[in-house]
């Protein structure tokens, strides 16, 4: 069981590149990936999306890539001589117009955009090969943070499910008493209407009809099956959505027991079970 919230940050320093990769995630019903990468590295966006999309089933994921070249070659630098000449002439004209005897220096000229251009384009296939090891390290750190938080969440869910199971056992123990109560009520009604001369077989017929309507044995057995399924699904890597759906089914069975019940002890147990399920569903909102 893994949490949907996690964080990891790794720095990059390899083959003339310097930067960092940051992964953050938050709760979300579906998989939602937001990427923030430099325009010069936009070509590797599909690689990052495939890498993360194949490993995460749901949650809002924010991936931030910071990257720059630390080494520049002659091929990376472009000198625009014509722009420099035009700019020099215009600056001289400006100086004459202002009555100044001044000539623009090289320091001034290189500050203007377009005079010297640094080529920041990056070879996509080469860049992904360079980044891949750091991306894997970031991913492992990210997964470890989600697993740690997931273990704490799993323990809370297990505690609530144990509470739920305990109350179901109490209800099962009272199921026989509920049937006896139905029998006593029907018998009392016949005595009230007919005195002691009522037909016992007629009582049994009415009892059978009422037990079909009021018995909770089927709900108890279905809840036991749901509990077993819950434990099995909880062992899967991405189980949050399935478990939430299963909790909805369990809640319906508990509601049915509550609607059929006539015992105070069962009513109290139903309240406890509904509260446990609500706590479980709250925790599942943070499970992948």
Automatic annotation (TrEMBL):
Protein's UniProt keywords contain Lyase: no
InterPro entries found in the cross-reference section: YicC-like_C (IPR013551), YicC-like_N (IPR013527), YicC/YloC-like (IPR005229)
Residue ranges of coiled coil: 154-181
Domain Endoribonuclease YicC-like C-terminal intervals: 171-288
Extent of the signal sequence: none
UniProt keyword annotations, A-Z: Coiled coil, Endonuclease, Hydrolase, Nuclease
Residue ranges occupied by any Endoribonuclease YicC-like N-terminal domain in the UniProt entry: 1-153
Keyword rRNA processing in annotation: no
Family: Belongs to the YicC/YloC family.
Protein name: YicC family protein
Originating species: uncultured spirochete
The organism's taxonomic lineage, starting at the top: Bacteria, Pseudomonadati, Spirochaetota, Spirochaetia, Spirochaetales
């Amino acid at each position: 069981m893994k949490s949907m919230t996690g964080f990891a940050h790794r720095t990059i320093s390899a083959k003339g590149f310097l930067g960092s990769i940051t992964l953050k995630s938050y709760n979300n019903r579906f998989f939602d990936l937001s990427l923030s990468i430099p325009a010069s590295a936009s070509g590797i966006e599909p690689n990052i999306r495939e890498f993360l999309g194949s490993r995460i089933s749901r949650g809002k994921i924010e991936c931030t890539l910071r990257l720059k070249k630390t080494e520049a070659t002659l091929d990376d630098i472009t000198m625009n001589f014509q722009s420099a000449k035009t700019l020099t002439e215009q600056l001289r004209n400006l100086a004459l117009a202002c009555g100044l005897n001044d000539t623009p220096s090289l320091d001034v000229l290189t500050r203007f955009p377009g005079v010297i251009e640094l080529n920041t384009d990056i070879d996509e296939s080469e860049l992904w090969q360079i980044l891949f090891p750091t991306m894997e390290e970031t991913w492992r750190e990210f997964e470890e943070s989600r697993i740690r938080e997931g273990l704490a969440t799993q323990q809370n869910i297990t505690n609530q499910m144990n509470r739920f199971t305990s109350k179901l056992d109490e209800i099962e123990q009272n199921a026989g008493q509920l049937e006896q109560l139905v029998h006593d009520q029907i018998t009392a009604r016949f005595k009230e209407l007919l005195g002691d001369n009522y037909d016992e077989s007629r009582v049994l017929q009415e009892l059978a009809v009422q037990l079909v309507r009021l018995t909770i044995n089927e709900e108890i057995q279905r809840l036991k099956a749901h509990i077993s399924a819950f434990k099995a699904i909880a062992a899967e890597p991405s189980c949050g959505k399935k478990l939430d759906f299963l909790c909805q089914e369990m809640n319906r069975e508990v509601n049915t027991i509550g609607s059929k019940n006539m015992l105070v002890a069962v009513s109290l147990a139903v309240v406890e079970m509904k509260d446990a399920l609500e706590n479980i569903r709250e925790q599942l909102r943070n499970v992948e």
